[in-house]
Every structure is written in C-alpha cells, then in structure tokens.
C-alpha cells in the first residue's frame, strides 16, 4: 500500500535525492509533491511519485536518475515554483478550488461583505486575484455579531528580503486588518526552511529576523502591538515580539 510506513520512507529518500539535484522546474515540482505527500498523504496526487519510485530497488542513484528523466507530470500542477495546466486551456480553477477544499468567492458574498463592513471589496477581490475562500462567510457572521476573531498568516524565510510575490498576501492582510480592526499573528516558519532547504539553523533564524523587518514595514496597526505579534518557531519565547 502506498500509505504504508515503507512508502513514506521511499518518498523521504526521493525527496533527499531531489534536494541535491532539483535544478529543473519539474524536479522542484516533484520535491514539492514529496513534501505535500508526507504532510497530507490523502490530499496529494501520488501518481507522479509512483512513476519515479515504484519499488525499493529504485532507490539507487542511477535508477532514480533514469526514472526522473522519464517522469511526466500530466496533470495540472500549482507549486511555489511552477504553474502548469493539463493542456492548452491553462489552469482549471474550478478543479483547483475543489482540490484545496475551498469555496468560490461569489458576488453575493462580496455584496454581504460591503453590507457588513461598510467597505468596498479590495481590488484583489473585485478583479478575481483572490478568487476562493474558507469560512469567509463565518468571519462575516462573527463581525455582524460583534464576536472577536483574529488574522493569522506566516512567512517561510528563505531569502534576506521579500520580493513582489511575497508582498501580495501581506498587502491583502494589511487591508483585512484595517477593515476588520482585529489582531494579527504572523508566524515565521524558519524551522521549515531549516529542514527543507538545507539551511543552517543560525542562517534560517537570521533570515527570519530580516524578513520580520520587511513585514513590519507594511504598516500593520501599531495600536494592536500587544496582540499583533511575530515569532520565530525556533525561539518562541525570545522572539515573541510586538509589531
């Protein structure tokens, strides 16, 4: 069974090999699939990985290389490194919404947002850049009822500064905090980068602190500094810092 402990070990070996040889987008996509499978086995497409390592005998470097050269990811793939559709039609967003277990942001929900908050939807929402959600309707209900909630997001520090792609979710989160007037928690997952990018512990932690400065610069609400916190996973007590 692909769900067995033995299979998990095979995937770990494949991931280790890919970390050392992931020079192409396809190999980076496979490495991402390995990571996703080990964390969420029931939600990750397994066929591309099976094509690479069907048997434990495939664990030799030579056989792995041969299988990787012949591996073909036929289905659409959305990863941090690559976006590729199944055919010339491009990405099937309906399928993507279903796979991630989210719901489509409808005009009715955006109208309700305006009614509840008194604000027009962000242009990311109006233009369909942000096109699906989980429990956004429940958040609007909490806002209507005056019940407390908070925002939670994070950053995996793998470079010394944020690029434009990193900025987009923080721009949107800043707007959400302004509209809902709620606390915000930002988790810096330096432990994840230490484990998956072969960074030294000290380097991962250093990058986290450099990224914290960039995130603070987005101008999150200083009045909520007791609740709006940034912390790094390795040093939660020492790094529990108010914005």
Summarize the entry for a quick read.
The protein is an alpha/beta fold and 243 residues long. It has helices at residues 5-21, 25-39, 47-52, 61-70, 93-100, 107-117, 123-126, 136-145, 164-180, 190-196, 201-216, and strands spanning 77-78, 83-84, 103-104, 132-133, 151-155, 184-188, 229-232, 241-242. A hairpin with a 4-residue loop joins strand 1 (77-78) and strand 2 (83-84).
The helix content is 40-55%
Note poorly predicted spans: 236-243
The SSE order reads HHHHEEHEHHEHEHEHHEE
Please work out how many helical segments DSSP would assign.
11
* Biggest pleated sheet: 4 strands, mixed
Rg, Å, rounded: 21 Å
Which oligomerization state do the chains in this entry correspond to? single chain
What gap, in angstroms, lies between the N and C termini? Answer: 48 Å
| Overall outline | globular
Structural class by SSE content: alpha/beta
- Tell me how many strands there are: 8
- Please report which band the strand proportion falls in: under 5%, 5-15%, 15-25%, 25-35%, 35-45% or over 45%: 5-15%
**Spatial order of strands in the largest sheet:** 5-6-7-8
In round numbers, the mean pLDDT is: 77
General description of the model:
The protein has 243 residues and is of the alpha/beta class. It has a four-stranded mixed beta sheet with strand order 5-6-7-8, with helices on one face. A two-stranded antiparallel sheet has the order 1-2. The chain has a two-stranded antiparallel ribbon with strand order 3-4. The chain is globular. The C terminus is likely disordered.
């Amino acid at each position: 069974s692909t769900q067995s402990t033995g299979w998990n070990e095979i995937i770990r070996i494949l991931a280790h090999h890919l970390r050392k040889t992931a020079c192409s987008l396809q190999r980076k996509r496979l490495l991402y699939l390995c990571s996703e499978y080990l964390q969420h086995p029931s939600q990750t497409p397994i066929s591309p990985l099976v094509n690479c390592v069907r048997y434990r005998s495939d664990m030799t470097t030579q056989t792995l290389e041969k299988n990787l050269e012949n591996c073909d990811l036929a289905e659409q793939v959305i990863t941090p490194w690559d976006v590729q559709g199944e055919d010339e039609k491009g990405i099937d967003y309906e399928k993507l919404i279903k796979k991630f277990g989210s719901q489509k942001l409808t005009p009715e929900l955006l109208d309700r947002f305006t009614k509840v908050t008194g604000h027009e939807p962000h242009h990311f929402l109006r233009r369909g850049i942000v096109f699906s959600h989980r429990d956004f309707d429940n958040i609007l209900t909490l806002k209507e009822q005056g019940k407390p909630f908070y925002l939670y997001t994070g950053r995996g520090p793998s470079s010394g500064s944020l690029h434009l792609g990193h900025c987009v979710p923080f721009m949107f989160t800043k707007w959400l905090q302004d509209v809902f007037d709620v606390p915000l928690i930002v988790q810096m997952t330096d432990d994840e980068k230490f484990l998956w990018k072969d960074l030294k512990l000290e380097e991962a932690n250093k990058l986290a602190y450099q990224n914290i400065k960039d995130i603070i610069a987005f101008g999150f609400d200083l009045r909520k500094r007791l609740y709006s916190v940034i912390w790094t996973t390795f040093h939660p007590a020492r790094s529990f810092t108010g914005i």
